[in-house]
Amino acid sequence: MSKSIILERIKELFFEETKEEKEPLKEDNKEKMEDYKNEIMAKLLDGTEIKILSKGDAVSVGDMVLVKVGEGFKEAPEGRHELEGGLIVYTDAEGFINEIETKETEEESEVGNEEMEELFSSVEKLMDVVFELKKEIAEIKKSNSTLNEEFKKFSAEPQEESITKKNKPVLEKNASKEDKLKFFSTRK
């Protein structure tokens, strides 16, 4: 089988064409199409030609997508359609665009998800470190409190001999011999 025959069969399956469905556009949509001012010709990634009927200069939500079928065009089937150049349009059952995104947007969101997962992982690790530090600080505070209590008890206890109350005789430099003898004889 040649490539063109295979491509035609894939198109038939993709667009669910039957002999009855090869009618041109639905009557309701013909009336709606009168509002459209611009026809934008484009191709899908598989090479299928499409025509976008737009009210403005660029593709926007509410525009109609028509797919080339044989010699004419038919409303695009409902679903996701990726155009050459990276534009992705989502159409409803009547071929109207209800969502537009770019391939970059998809890739950015995937990269964004990876970055967010990495960020959350880093935050989680940071939270673990903070938790450990808080735990250590609590232990240090408890230890400090215990040491303070012990020091207060120790400082409140009286000494065996009071340094300030005990009046020891002091020997002066110019003391007489008698005072020096008295001083040394009373020492313990």
Can you describe what's shown?
- The protein has helices at residues 3-14, 27-33, 103-156, 177-185; strands at 38-43, 49-54, 64-69, 72-75, 79-82, 87-91, 97-102.
- The chain has a domain at 3-102.
- It has four helices and seven strands, in the order H-H-E-E-E-E-E-E-E-H-H.
- Residues 16-23 have low confidence and may be disordered.
- The radius of gyration is 47 Å and the shape is rod-shaped.
- Strand 3 (64-69) and strand 4 (72-75) form a beta hairpin.
- It has a four-stranded antiparallel beta sheet with strand order 1-2-3-4, with no helix packed on it. A three-stranded antiparallel beta sheet has the order 5-6-7.
- With 188 residues, the chain is of the alpha+beta class.
Helices and strands in order:
Layout: H1 3-14, H2 27-33, E1 38-43, E2 49-54, E3 64-69, E4 72-75, E5 79-82, E6 87-91, E7 97-102, H3 103-156, H4 177-185
Antiparallel strand pairs: 1-2, 2-3, 3-4, 5-6, 6-7
Low-confidence stretches: 16-23
Tell me about the largest β-sheet. Answer: 4 strands, antiparallel
Question: What is the average per-residue confidence, as pLDDT, rounded to a whole number?
Answer: 77
Structural class computed from helices and strand pairing: alpha+beta
